[in-house]
Amino acid sequence: MKTIALVSTVGGAGKTTVTAALAVLLARRGRPVAAADLDPQNMLGAHLGLDTFARAGLGHAMAGQGEPWHGNTWRNADGVLFAPHGETTLAERTAYEARLAQEPHWLVDALARIDFPARGVALLDTARFPSQQAAQAVRAADLVLCVTPPDPAGCATLARCFPSLRETGALVKVVVNRLNPARDMQRDALVLLRAAVGDALELAHRVHFDAAMPESLARGEWLFDEAPHSQASHDLHGLANWIDAWLDGTLDVGMAVDSEHTR
Q1: Rounded to an integer, what distance in angstroms lies between the CA atom of residue 62 and that of residue 107?
Q2: Which one, out of 50, 134, 147, 194, has a CA that is 20 to 30 A from the CA of 202?
Q3: Residues contacting 250, CB < 8 A, separation 6+
Q4: Which long-range contacts (CB under 8 A, 24 or more apart) does 157-161 make?
């Protein structure tokens, strides 16, 4: 099983939405998928079909209250096995952040306990980088996807944090989310980001802005089901295709995302 960490260096990047969408698209391609929520916002479960915010989850396991997966996992309609973060207090988060600092391989060891097929993949939705949760996820990852909005603040923050992300030894790629090519400011910000991150920023690793995305999520649906021919749907399928090929070892990691998507 390979592990993919999705990180962001600013809030509101759409990291959780991208994580959930990729989990579903990879599962629909026949890939065994596990998704873990390491973000105290506890939103991944809502994206994957839970009607209410999960009360218990990985946050409590990280705080030493039980095993990581026992009794804390769910499987959604698309077959994605996922573990929510759970609702935690400030004191609980303080406790588990201290524990994660003392046990830097806690997540690596926890993932090793999942009985998953070799061709399976674990997707990790993390708290904002840098954080103890994100550090654990990046340390456990074979691939790190940095999700960033194409604005000056997001690009500048990612450029500053990028060297420490690459120190992990994992393959690191940038996913530009909510891209609007008509905005000059976004194009200028991406030029600056490319200068900082080099080949990690491939223009094909992008998801265009679509106002229908939050409306679809509010209805409990996916944009790629409701509007399969939209540009954002096309982008998400393309990214899922790239990841699927990377997982199989059939893709040159420098290649752009395939422009054709499969259903």
Answers
A1: 9
A2: 134
A3: none
A4: 157/9, 157/10, 158/9, 158/10, 158/193, 158/196, 158/197, 159/192, 159/193, 159/196, 159/197, 160/9, 161/9, 161/129, 161/130
Residue 154 is encoded by which pair of tokens?
Answer: 């997001």
- Which residue in the block uniquely carries the two structure tokens 């996807």? 145
Check: CB of residue 10 under 8 Å from CB of residue 178.
no
Distances (CA, A) of 19 to 45, 67, 70, 128, 214: 11, 23, 22, 14, 15
Q: Structurally, how many domains does the chain consist of?
A: 1
Tokens 């905005």 — which residue?
A: 183
Extended strands (E) in 30-156? 33-38, 74-75, 81-83, 121-126, 143-148
| 161 assigned to some structural domain | yes
Range of the domain at 126: 2-248
> How many Cβ atoms sit within 10 Å of the Cβ of residue 72?
22
| Collapsed DSSP state (helix, strand, coil) of residue 238 | helix
Tell me the mean pLDDT in the region 214-230: 90
CA distances from 198 to 86, 157, 202, 258 (A): 37, 15, 9, 20
Per-residue pLDDT tens for 73-98?
889 999 999 999 999 999 999 999 99
**38 occurs within a structural domain:** yes
Q: Tell whether 262 is covered by a domain.
A: no
Would you say residue 261 lies in a domain?
no
Query: 0.70 cut: is pTM over it?
Result: yes
Up-side HSE of residue 173: CA atoms within 13 Å toward CB? 22
